[in-house]
Write a structure and sequence with these properties.
By secondary structure, the chain is α/β, with parallel strands linked by helices. It has 18 helices and 16 strands. The protein folds into two domains: about 35-65 and about 345-450, Alpha-Beta Complex (Aspartate Aminotransferase, domain 1), CATH 3.90.1150; about 70-340, Type I PLP-dependent aspartate aminotransferase-like (Major domain) (Aspartate Aminotransferase, domain 2). It has helices spanning about 5-15, 25-30, 55-60, 70-80, 95-105, 120-135, 160-165, 165-170, 185-190, 195-215, 240-250, 270-275, 305-310, 325-340, 345-350, 350-360, 400-410, 430-450, and strands at about 35-40, 45, 50-55, 110-115, 145-150, 180, 220-225, 255-260, 280-285, 295-300, 370-375, 380-385, 390, 410-415, 415, 420-425. The chain has a seven-stranded mixed β-sheet, with helices on both faces. Strands 11, 12, 13, 15 and 16 form a five-stranded antiparallel β-sheet that branches. Strands 1-2-3-14 form a four-stranded mixed β-sheet. The radius of gyration is 22 Å and the shape is globular. It binds pyridoxal-5'-phosphate. Pyridoxal-5'-phosphate binds near residues 124, 229 and 297.
Protein backbone atom coordinates (compact mmCIF):
# COMPACT_ATOMS: atom_id res chain seq x y z
CA UNK A 1 0.00 0.00 0.00
CA UNK A 2 1.50 3.35 -0.91
CA UNK A 3 1.78 6.16 1.62
CA UNK A 4 -1.17 8.16 0.30
CA UNK A 5 -3.46 5.15 0.54
CA UNK A 6 -2.22 4.30 4.00
CA UNK A 7 -2.85 7.87 5.18
CA UNK A 8 -6.32 7.91 3.69
CA UNK A 9 -7.10 4.54 5.32
CA UNK A 10 -5.90 5.66 8.74
CA UNK A 11 -7.87 8.88 8.53
CA UNK A 12 -11.08 7.14 7.59
CA UNK A 13 -10.68 4.39 10.22
CA UNK A 14 -10.00 7.09 12.79
CA UNK A 15 -13.21 8.90 11.87
CA UNK A 16 -15.14 5.65 11.95
CA UNK A 17 -13.95 4.16 15.25
CA UNK A 18 -12.14 6.64 17.45
CA UNK A 19 -13.84 9.09 19.79
CA UNK A 20 -11.25 11.78 20.58
CA UNK A 21 -10.85 13.67 23.87
CA UNK A 22 -12.13 17.26 24.00
CA UNK A 23 -13.38 16.97 20.44
CA UNK A 24 -16.62 17.80 18.65
CA UNK A 25 -17.60 14.25 17.66
CA UNK A 26 -19.97 15.43 14.95
CA UNK A 27 -17.49 17.76 13.31
CA UNK A 28 -14.59 15.33 13.58
CA UNK A 29 -16.67 12.53 12.11
CA UNK A 30 -17.07 14.72 9.06
CA UNK A 31 -13.72 16.45 8.72
CA UNK A 32 -11.26 14.03 10.31
CA UNK A 33 -7.81 15.05 11.51
CA UNK A 34 -4.08 14.74 11.27
CA UNK A 35 -2.20 11.50 11.86
CA UNK A 36 1.10 12.03 13.68
CA UNK A 37 3.52 9.33 12.62
CA UNK A 38 6.83 10.14 14.28
CA UNK A 39 8.74 12.78 16.19
CA UNK A 40 12.34 13.86 16.52
CA UNK A 41 13.94 16.40 18.85
CA UNK A 42 11.37 19.29 18.85
CA UNK A 43 9.57 18.32 15.66
CA UNK A 44 6.57 16.15 14.94
CA UNK A 45 5.83 14.65 11.52
CA UNK A 46 2.40 13.83 10.11
CA UNK A 47 1.35 11.17 7.65
CA UNK A 48 1.23 13.76 4.87
CA UNK A 49 4.94 14.30 5.41
CA UNK A 50 4.71 17.75 7.02
CA UNK A 51 7.33 18.65 9.64
CA UNK A 52 5.90 20.80 12.46
CA UNK A 53 7.82 22.54 15.24
CA UNK A 54 6.06 21.56 18.45
CA UNK A 55 5.44 24.81 20.28
CA UNK A 56 3.28 23.00 22.86
CA UNK A 57 5.64 20.16 23.94
CA UNK A 58 2.95 17.62 23.07
CA UNK A 59 0.27 18.44 25.63
CA UNK A 60 2.66 20.41 27.89
CA UNK A 61 4.58 17.22 28.70
CA UNK A 62 7.46 16.54 26.30
CA UNK A 63 9.57 19.27 27.85
CA UNK A 64 12.79 17.57 26.75
CA UNK A 65 11.54 16.90 23.24
CA UNK A 66 11.17 13.55 21.54
CA UNK A 67 14.68 12.13 21.21
CA UNK A 68 15.73 11.18 24.74
CA UNK A 69 17.56 7.88 24.33
CA UNK A 70 18.04 7.46 28.10
CA UNK A 71 14.29 7.32 28.64
CA UNK A 72 13.87 4.59 26.06
CA UNK A 73 16.69 2.61 27.65
CA UNK A 74 15.25 3.00 31.15
CA UNK A 75 11.83 1.75 30.00
CA UNK A 76 13.27 -1.15 28.02
CA UNK A 77 15.50 -2.33 30.85
CA UNK A 78 12.66 -2.16 33.34
CA UNK A 79 10.26 -4.00 31.02
CA UNK A 80 12.69 -6.92 30.95
CA UNK A 81 13.35 -6.88 34.69
CA UNK A 82 9.94 -6.26 36.26
CA UNK A 83 7.27 -5.06 33.83
CA UNK A 84 4.60 -4.80 36.49
CA UNK A 85 3.85 -5.35 40.10
CA UNK A 86 1.47 -3.47 42.35
CA UNK A 87 2.20 -1.45 45.46
CA UNK A 88 -0.81 -2.77 47.42
CA UNK A 89 -0.64 -5.33 50.26
CA UNK A 90 2.71 -4.21 51.71
CA UNK A 91 4.61 -4.64 48.44
CA UNK A 92 6.91 -2.17 46.76
CA UNK A 93 9.43 -2.24 43.92
CA UNK A 94 12.79 -0.69 43.20
CA UNK A 95 11.78 1.98 40.64
CA UNK A 96 8.87 3.29 42.73
CA UNK A 97 11.08 3.55 45.82
CA UNK A 98 13.85 5.25 43.83
CA UNK A 99 11.36 7.55 42.15
CA UNK A 100 9.90 8.58 45.50
CA UNK A 101 13.39 9.43 46.75
CA UNK A 102 14.20 11.28 43.53
CA UNK A 103 11.04 13.38 43.75
CA UNK A 104 11.80 14.26 47.36
CA UNK A 105 15.27 15.42 46.26
CA UNK A 106 13.93 17.95 43.71
CA UNK A 107 10.74 19.20 45.36
CA UNK A 108 10.62 21.90 48.09
CA UNK A 109 11.89 20.79 51.49
CA UNK A 110 8.49 20.31 53.14
CA UNK A 111 7.83 17.36 50.80
CA UNK A 112 9.12 13.97 51.94
CA UNK A 113 6.25 11.70 50.85
CA UNK A 114 4.57 10.90 47.55
CA UNK A 115 1.34 9.14 46.52
CA UNK A 116 1.53 7.88 42.92
CA UNK A 117 -1.24 7.95 40.33
CA UNK A 118 -1.21 7.66 36.52
CA UNK A 119 -2.42 11.13 35.68
CA UNK A 120 -2.99 14.64 36.92
CA UNK A 121 -6.75 14.11 37.16
CA UNK A 122 -6.33 11.11 39.43
CA UNK A 123 -3.80 13.01 41.50
CA UNK A 124 -6.30 15.81 42.09
CA UNK A 125 -9.00 13.28 43.02
CA UNK A 126 -6.44 11.89 45.46
CA UNK A 127 -5.90 15.39 46.86
CA UNK A 128 -9.55 15.63 47.85
CA UNK A 129 -9.43 12.33 49.71
CA UNK A 130 -6.14 13.25 51.42
CA UNK A 131 -7.51 16.60 52.54
CA UNK A 132 -10.74 15.06 53.85
CA UNK A 133 -8.87 12.34 55.72
CA UNK A 134 -6.46 14.91 57.18
CA UNK A 135 -9.22 16.97 58.78
CA UNK A 136 -11.18 13.88 59.83
CA UNK A 137 -8.15 12.63 61.75
CA UNK A 138 -7.70 16.07 63.29
CA UNK A 139 -11.28 15.89 64.53
CA UNK A 140 -12.60 18.56 62.18
CA UNK A 141 -14.92 16.51 59.95
CA UNK A 142 -16.89 19.58 58.87
CA UNK A 143 -13.87 20.84 56.95
CA UNK A 144 -14.80 19.34 53.58
CA UNK A 145 -15.24 22.31 51.25
CA UNK A 146 -12.64 23.12 48.63
CA UNK A 147 -12.15 26.45 46.95
CA UNK A 148 -10.81 26.68 43.40
CA UNK A 149 -10.90 29.28 40.65
CA UNK A 150 -12.92 30.09 37.58
CA UNK A 151 -11.16 29.05 34.39
CA UNK A 152 -8.84 26.67 36.27
CA UNK A 153 -7.97 23.30 34.78
CA UNK A 154 -7.39 20.40 37.16
CA UNK A 155 -8.23 17.43 34.92
CA UNK A 156 -11.31 15.77 33.53
CA UNK A 157 -12.54 13.06 35.89
CA UNK A 158 -15.72 14.10 37.71
CA UNK A 159 -13.84 15.26 40.80
CA UNK A 160 -10.98 16.92 38.92
CA UNK A 161 -13.28 18.74 36.55
CA UNK A 162 -15.42 19.85 39.48
CA UNK A 163 -12.27 21.43 40.86
CA UNK A 164 -11.67 22.97 37.45
CA UNK A 165 -13.46 26.16 36.56
CA UNK A 166 -14.25 25.66 32.90
CA UNK A 167 -17.91 26.50 32.38
CA UNK A 168 -18.31 24.48 29.22
CA UNK A 169 -17.11 21.39 31.07
CA UNK A 170 -19.45 21.95 34.03
CA UNK A 171 -22.40 22.15 31.65
CA UNK A 172 -22.01 18.49 30.70
CA UNK A 173 -22.12 16.75 34.11
CA UNK A 174 -23.10 17.42 37.70
CA UNK A 175 -20.16 18.63 39.74
CA UNK A 176 -19.36 18.13 43.41
CA UNK A 177 -21.41 20.35 45.68
CA UNK A 178 -18.55 21.04 48.09
CA UNK A 179 -16.36 22.76 45.49
CA UNK A 180 -16.55 26.55 45.07
CA UNK A 181 -14.91 28.91 42.61
CA UNK A 182 -13.49 32.39 43.00
CA UNK A 183 -12.12 34.76 40.33
CA UNK A 184 -8.87 34.31 38.43
CA UNK A 185 -5.91 36.72 38.44
CA UNK A 186 -6.32 37.63 34.76
CA UNK A 187 -5.39 41.29 34.83
CA UNK A 188 -5.55 42.06 31.10
CA UNK A 189 -9.09 40.66 30.80
CA UNK A 190 -10.60 41.70 34.10
CA UNK A 191 -8.29 44.26 35.71
CA UNK A 192 -9.91 47.34 34.19
CA UNK A 193 -8.29 50.52 35.49
CA UNK A 194 -6.57 48.83 38.43
CA UNK A 195 -2.81 48.41 38.41
CA UNK A 196 -1.74 44.75 38.13
CA UNK A 197 -0.62 44.83 41.78
CA UNK A 198 -3.91 46.22 43.07
CA UNK A 199 -5.84 43.77 40.94
CA UNK A 200 -3.72 40.86 42.22
CA UNK A 201 -4.60 41.75 45.81
CA UNK A 202 -8.24 42.27 44.96
CA UNK A 203 -8.77 38.83 43.37
CA UNK A 204 -6.76 37.15 46.13
CA UNK A 205 -9.08 38.76 48.69
CA UNK A 206 -11.97 36.86 47.08
CA UNK A 207 -10.51 33.79 48.78
CA UNK A 208 -10.94 35.39 52.18
CA UNK A 209 -14.49 36.47 51.35
CA UNK A 210 -15.37 32.97 50.19
CA UNK A 211 -13.92 31.38 53.35
CA UNK A 212 -15.97 33.75 55.52
CA UNK A 213 -19.07 33.07 53.44
CA UNK A 214 -18.78 29.25 53.72
CA UNK A 215 -17.38 29.30 57.25
CA UNK A 216 -13.77 28.85 58.30
CA UNK A 217 -14.69 25.61 60.08
CA UNK A 218 -16.00 24.13 56.81
CA UNK A 219 -13.26 25.02 54.32
CA UNK A 220 -10.52 22.41 53.92
CA UNK A 221 -8.35 23.55 51.03
CA UNK A 222 -7.63 25.96 48.22
CA UNK A 223 -6.33 24.52 44.95
CA UNK A 224 -4.68 26.48 42.14
CA UNK A 225 -2.15 26.29 39.36
CA UNK A 226 0.78 28.70 39.91
CA UNK A 227 0.11 29.86 36.34
CA UNK A 228 -3.20 28.71 34.83
CA UNK A 229 -2.18 26.76 31.75
CA UNK A 230 -5.17 25.48 29.79
CA UNK A 231 -7.13 28.56 30.88
CA UNK A 232 -4.90 30.70 28.68
CA UNK A 233 -1.54 31.00 30.47
CA UNK A 234 -2.76 33.43 33.11
CA UNK A 235 0.42 34.85 34.67
CA UNK A 236 -0.61 36.29 38.06
CA UNK A 237 0.42 39.75 39.26
CA UNK A 238 3.31 39.72 41.77
CA UNK A 239 0.98 40.57 44.67
CA UNK A 240 -1.31 37.60 44.12
CA UNK A 241 0.47 34.58 45.62
CA UNK A 242 1.78 36.24 48.81
CA UNK A 243 -1.78 37.28 49.65
CA UNK A 244 -3.14 33.78 48.92
CA UNK A 245 -0.48 32.29 51.20
CA UNK A 246 -1.35 34.75 53.97
CA UNK A 247 -5.06 33.89 53.78
CA UNK A 248 -4.52 30.11 53.75
CA UNK A 249 -2.27 30.41 56.82
CA UNK A 250 -4.68 32.70 58.65
CA UNK A 251 -7.66 30.34 58.27
CA UNK A 252 -5.95 26.94 58.52
CA UNK A 253 -6.73 26.10 54.91
CA UNK A 254 -4.48 23.59 53.13
CA UNK A 255 -2.86 25.02 50.02
CA UNK A 256 -2.68 22.70 47.00
CA UNK A 257 -0.42 23.70 44.13
CA UNK A 258 -1.38 21.96 40.91
CA UNK A 259 2.01 21.77 39.20
CA UNK A 260 1.01 19.42 36.39
CA UNK A 261 2.09 22.05 33.86
CA UNK A 262 4.29 24.32 35.97
CA UNK A 263 6.41 21.51 37.44
CA UNK A 264 9.80 20.37 36.16
CA UNK A 265 11.07 23.64 34.79
CA UNK A 266 8.24 25.18 32.82
CA UNK A 267 8.16 28.49 34.73
CA UNK A 268 11.95 28.78 35.05
CA UNK A 269 12.27 27.01 38.45
CA UNK A 270 11.83 23.35 39.31
CA UNK A 271 8.28 24.13 40.48
CA UNK A 272 5.91 27.04 40.00
CA UNK A 273 5.57 27.54 43.75
CA UNK A 274 9.30 28.35 43.79
CA UNK A 275 8.90 30.92 41.02
CA UNK A 276 6.14 32.58 43.08
CA UNK A 277 7.64 31.89 46.53
CA UNK A 278 4.75 30.13 48.23
CA UNK A 279 4.70 26.95 50.32
CA UNK A 280 2.01 24.45 49.36
CA UNK A 281 0.93 21.64 51.67
CA UNK A 282 0.17 19.34 48.74
CA UNK A 283 1.49 19.44 45.21
CA UNK A 284 0.08 17.72 42.12
CA UNK A 285 2.43 16.55 39.38
CA UNK A 286 2.08 14.59 36.11
CA UNK A 287 2.87 15.43 32.46
CA UNK A 288 6.57 16.50 32.41
CA UNK A 289 7.56 14.04 35.16
CA UNK A 290 8.18 11.35 32.54
CA UNK A 291 8.65 13.80 29.68
CA UNK A 292 5.31 12.45 28.45
CA UNK A 293 6.87 9.08 27.53
CA UNK A 294 4.63 7.10 29.91
CA UNK A 295 1.64 8.00 32.10
CA UNK A 296 2.62 8.94 35.65
CA UNK A 297 1.25 11.43 38.14
CA UNK A 298 0.99 11.89 41.84
CA UNK A 299 0.72 14.07 44.89
CA UNK A 300 3.66 15.33 46.94
CA UNK A 301 2.55 15.34 50.56
CA UNK A 302 4.15 17.75 53.05
CA UNK A 303 5.39 16.71 56.47
CA UNK A 304 2.58 18.73 58.02
CA UNK A 305 -0.03 16.58 56.27
CA UNK A 306 1.77 13.22 56.31
CA UNK A 307 2.45 13.44 60.07
CA UNK A 308 -1.29 13.62 60.66
CA UNK A 309 -2.09 10.90 58.10
CA UNK A 310 0.42 8.57 59.75
CA UNK A 311 -0.79 9.32 63.27
CA UNK A 312 -3.85 7.13 63.01
CA UNK A 313 -4.23 3.46 62.10
CA UNK A 314 -6.69 2.28 59.45
CA UNK A 315 -6.26 2.07 55.67
CA UNK A 316 -6.31 5.11 53.43
CA UNK A 317 -9.03 3.67 51.22
CA UNK A 318 -7.70 4.76 47.86
CA UNK A 319 -5.31 3.49 45.18
CA UNK A 320 -4.90 2.60 41.55
CA UNK A 321 -3.81 -0.66 39.95
CA UNK A 322 -0.90 1.19 38.38
CA UNK A 323 0.02 3.47 41.32
CA UNK A 324 3.82 3.60 41.20
CA UNK A 325 4.07 1.52 38.01
CA UNK A 326 7.68 0.31 37.80
CA UNK A 327 8.20 1.17 34.12
CA UNK A 328 6.67 4.65 34.42
CA UNK A 329 8.76 5.28 37.54
CA UNK A 330 11.93 4.10 35.77
CA UNK A 331 11.27 6.65 33.04
CA UNK A 332 10.52 9.32 35.68
CA UNK A 333 13.86 8.68 37.39
CA UNK A 334 15.67 8.94 34.04
CA UNK A 335 13.82 12.17 33.18
CA UNK A 336 14.80 13.83 36.44
CA UNK A 337 18.38 12.56 36.03
CA UNK A 338 18.64 14.35 32.68
CA UNK A 339 17.23 17.55 34.16
CA UNK A 340 19.64 17.36 37.10
CA UNK A 341 22.81 16.25 35.31
CA UNK A 342 22.52 18.78 32.51
CA UNK A 343 21.39 21.52 34.94
CA UNK A 344 18.69 22.35 32.39
CA UNK A 345 16.40 24.13 34.85
CA UNK A 346 19.19 25.94 36.71
CA UNK A 347 20.43 27.37 33.39
CA UNK A 348 17.06 28.08 31.82
CA UNK A 349 16.63 31.70 32.85
CA UNK A 350 20.11 32.77 31.72
CA UNK A 351 19.79 30.86 28.48
CA UNK A 352 16.84 29.83 26.36
CA UNK A 353 14.04 31.17 28.58
CA UNK A 354 15.70 34.56 28.47
CA UNK A 355 15.82 34.45 24.68
CA UNK A 356 12.27 33.11 24.41
CA UNK A 357 11.06 35.92 26.67
CA UNK A 358 12.81 38.56 24.57
CA UNK A 359 11.47 37.24 21.27
CA UNK A 360 7.95 36.66 22.63
CA UNK A 361 7.72 40.15 24.11
CA UNK A 362 8.56 41.63 20.70
CA UNK A 363 5.21 40.26 19.50
CA UNK A 364 3.49 42.86 21.68
CA UNK A 365 4.21 45.38 18.90
CA UNK A 366 2.03 43.48 16.44
CA UNK A 367 -1.27 45.17 15.56
CA UNK A 368 -3.48 42.29 16.78
CA UNK A 369 -1.59 41.69 20.02
CA UNK A 370 -2.99 43.45 23.09
CA UNK A 371 -0.70 41.87 25.63
CA UNK A 372 2.24 39.46 25.46
CA UNK A 373 2.79 37.41 28.63
CA UNK A 374 5.70 35.09 29.24
CA UNK A 375 7.21 33.37 32.27
CA UNK A 376 10.00 30.85 31.85
CA UNK A 377 9.02 28.74 28.84
CA UNK A 378 5.28 29.38 28.81
CA UNK A 379 3.63 32.29 27.04
CA UNK A 380 0.44 33.84 25.74
CA UNK A 381 -0.79 36.59 23.43
CA UNK A 382 -4.12 38.33 23.89
CA UNK A 383 -5.52 39.04 20.44
CA UNK A 384 -7.38 42.34 20.11
CA UNK A 385 -9.14 44.46 17.57
CA UNK A 386 -8.19 47.64 19.39
CA UNK A 387 -5.18 47.91 21.69
CA UNK A 388 -6.42 51.03 23.47
CA UNK A 389 -9.83 49.66 24.50
CA UNK A 390 -8.65 46.01 24.75
CA UNK A 391 -11.62 45.07 22.54
CA UNK A 392 -11.27 41.39 21.72
CA UNK A 393 -10.55 40.33 18.18
CA UNK A 394 -13.61 38.19 17.59
CA UNK A 395 -16.30 36.38 19.57
CA UNK A 396 -16.03 32.69 20.50
CA UNK A 397 -12.30 32.35 20.03
CA UNK A 398 -12.79 32.53 16.28
CA UNK A 399 -9.86 34.90 15.68
CA UNK A 400 -7.40 32.86 17.72
CA UNK A 401 -8.54 29.64 16.06
CA UNK A 402 -7.93 31.21 12.66
CA UNK A 403 -4.48 32.42 13.74
CA UNK A 404 -3.60 29.01 15.15
CA UNK A 405 -4.70 27.21 11.99
CA UNK A 406 -2.54 29.44 9.81
CA UNK A 407 0.42 28.97 12.17
CA UNK A 408 0.00 25.19 12.20
CA UNK A 409 -0.23 24.98 8.42
CA UNK A 410 2.97 27.03 8.33
CA UNK A 411 4.75 24.52 10.52
CA UNK A 412 4.36 25.44 14.18
CA UNK A 413 2.01 24.02 16.80
CA UNK A 414 0.52 26.70 19.06
CA UNK A 415 -2.83 26.57 20.82
CA UNK A 416 -5.91 28.83 20.79
CA UNK A 417 -7.72 29.53 24.09
CA UNK A 418 -10.53 32.06 23.81
CA UNK A 419 -8.84 35.10 22.33
CA UNK A 420 -5.39 33.91 23.32
CA UNK A 421 -2.63 32.19 21.44
CA UNK A 422 -0.52 30.17 23.84
CA UNK A 423 2.78 28.36 23.57
CA UNK A 424 4.93 26.13 25.79
CA UNK A 425 7.85 24.93 23.67
CA UNK A 426 10.28 22.22 24.79
CA UNK A 427 12.68 23.69 27.33
CA UNK A 428 15.59 22.24 25.35
CA UNK A 429 14.87 24.39 22.26
CA UNK A 430 17.80 26.36 20.89
CA UNK A 431 17.68 29.99 19.74
CA UNK A 432 17.26 29.09 16.07
CA UNK A 433 14.22 26.99 16.96
CA UNK A 434 12.72 29.84 18.97
CA UNK A 435 13.33 32.13 15.99
CA UNK A 436 11.52 29.60 13.81
CA UNK A 437 8.60 29.45 16.24
CA UNK A 438 8.25 33.24 16.27
CA UNK A 439 8.64 33.54 12.49
CA UNK A 440 5.96 30.94 11.77
CA UNK A 441 3.61 32.37 14.39
CA UNK A 442 4.06 35.81 12.82
CA UNK A 443 2.69 34.44 9.55
CA UNK A 444 -0.45 33.54 11.51
CA UNK A 445 -0.63 36.93 13.22
CA UNK A 446 -0.18 38.80 9.92
CA UNK A 447 -2.90 36.74 8.25
CA UNK A 448 -5.18 37.35 11.23
CA UNK A 449 -4.63 41.12 11.13
CA UNK A 450 -5.46 41.07 7.44
CA UNK A 451 -8.60 38.96 7.81
CA UNK A 452 -10.01 41.11 10.62
CA UNK A 453 -8.88 44.40 9.10
CA UNK A 454 -6.76 45.41 12.08
C1 LIG B 1 -3.31 18.37 32.28
C2 LIG B 1 -3.60 18.88 33.63
C3 LIG B 1 -4.23 18.08 34.59
C4 LIG B 1 -4.78 16.72 34.25
O1 LIG B 1 -3.81 15.80 33.99
P1 LIG B 1 -4.22 14.46 33.19
O2 LIG B 1 -2.94 13.68 33.21
O3 LIG B 1 -4.66 14.88 31.83
O4 LIG B 1 -5.30 13.81 33.95
C5 LIG B 1 -4.39 18.58 35.85
N1 LIG B 1 -3.95 19.80 36.17
C6 LIG B 1 -3.35 20.61 35.28
C7 LIG B 1 -2.86 21.94 35.70
C8 LIG B 1 -3.17 20.17 33.97
O5 LIG B 1 -2.63 20.97 33.07
Amino acid sequence: MNIDNRTATLKSLDKAHHLHPFTDFKKYGESGGRIITRAEHVYIYDSDGQQILDGMSGLWCCNLGYSQEKLVEAATEQLYKLPYYNNFFNCSNEPSVEMAKTLVSVTPEQFNQVFFTNSGSEANDTNIKLVHRYFDILGMPAKKHIISRKNAYHGSTIAASSLGGMNYMHEQYRGLDYVHHIGQPYWYEEGGDLSPDDFGKKVASELEQKILEIGEDKVAAFIAEPIQGAGGVIVPPATYWPEIQRICDAYDILLISDEVICGFGRTGSWFGCETYHFQPDLMTFAKGVTNGYLPLGGVMVSDKVSTVLKSKSGDFAHGLTYSGHPVACAVGIATIEILKQQKIIENLNQNIANYFQKRWNELADHAVVGQARVQGMVAALDLVKDKSTRERLAPDAEGAVFCRDVAVSNGVIVRAVDNNIISAPPIICNEAEIDMLIERLLIGLDATAKKYGV
